[in-house]
Specification:
With 140 residues, the chain is mainly α. The protein has four helices and no strands. Bound molecules: fe (ii) ion (FE2) (2 copies).
Length: 140
């Protein structure tokens, strides 16, 4: 049976991932050169806004549930070149989808209906990010 501690721990892992993603996309935007880089920087800008929104939501929820939100971002690999960076991003977005779905399940078990739905919606956002990045990768 899921406990509130399990849920808060899971949400803090999600928060660390989101903070790490904001930094990863900011870093990758700076390392994106050429004409592709110009377009990528635009995409990263939009995704950074989404991820920051996710992080802000998680901060509020963790506090509301009586937890202490982490301020430490998750680390990430720094492969060379646009293609390798985007391949990493697709994998990390997919991992985020899995984590949100798992934590939505925990929220459901604890009877937290709004949180369950919001986490599923965030999983859908990440799946959308992964699809967008896959589309760019196909053209490289
Ligand atoms: Fe996110
Ligand atoms: Fe994302």
């Amino acid at each position: 049976m899921a406990t509130m501690d399990d849920l808060i721990k899971g949400l803090n892992e999600d928060l660390a991932a989101e903070l790490g993603t904001v930094i990863r996309y900011s870093y990758q935007a700076s390392k994106s050169f050429g004409l592709t880089g110009v377009e990528l920087r635009e995409m990263f800008e939009e995704e950074i806004a989404d991820e920051l929104g996710h992080a802000t939501f998680l901060l509020d929820v963790i506090v509301d549930l009586g937890g202490e939100p982490t301020t430490t971002p998750a680390g990430f690999a720094k492969p060379d070149g646009i293609k390798a960076m985007l391949e990493l991003d697709v994998e990390m977005e997919k991992k985020d989808v899995e984590n949100y779905m798992a934590h939505a399940q925990l929220a459901d078990e604890l009877g937290l209906v709004e949180l369950k739905l919001k986490l599923e919606e965030m999983a859908a956002d990440e799946a959308g990010h992964a699809r967008e990045i896959r589309r760019i990768l196909k053209g490289l």
